[in-house]
Amino acid sequence: QVQLVESGGGLVQAGGSLRLSCVASGSIFSLGRMGWHRQAPGKQREFVARIDSGGNIDAIDSLKGRFTISRDNAKNTVYLQMNSLQPDDTAVYYCNADITDRRFKNDNYWGQGTQVTVSS
Q1: Between the CA of residue 84 and those of 10, 78, 87, 108, what are the distances in Å?
Q2: Contact at 8 Å (CB) between 25 and 2?
């Protein structure tokens, strides 16, 4: 069984920073791309950023310069450093990852989400 667990969300004032973490655990053979999406109240889930095992990054242009994705392959962990947070960044942030388990079955997994709330 494979699972993703996010942490690091919380309440922060506008202009503040948070760092989200997501750890993959379980019967993992290999980790492919890992990334983050977010879903604000009343809106559809949107892509934020992703990173592959070689460190190649895709991210939405509007968040570049404020949000930085990174990963630690040895720890099966992906991070999202969020700076200069604004109230519009308020959302549930979800981690996802392409994982091949020890039965060599590949699938895309999602975490349960972590709430980020930015007050004005």
Answers
A1: 15, 20, 10, 30
A2: yes
Contact 113, 92 (CB under 8 A): yes
Neighbours of 63 (CB within 10 A): 19
Per-residue pLDDT in tens (0 to 9) along the chain, 120 residues: 899 999 999 999 999 999 999 999 999 999 999 999 999 999 999 999 999 999 999 999 989 889 999 999 999 999 999 999 999 999 999 999 999 999 999 999 999 999 999 999
Give the torsion sign (CA, 61, 46, 8, 106).
Answer: negative
The residues, any chain, with a CB within 8 Å of residue 42's CB and separated by 6 or more, are none
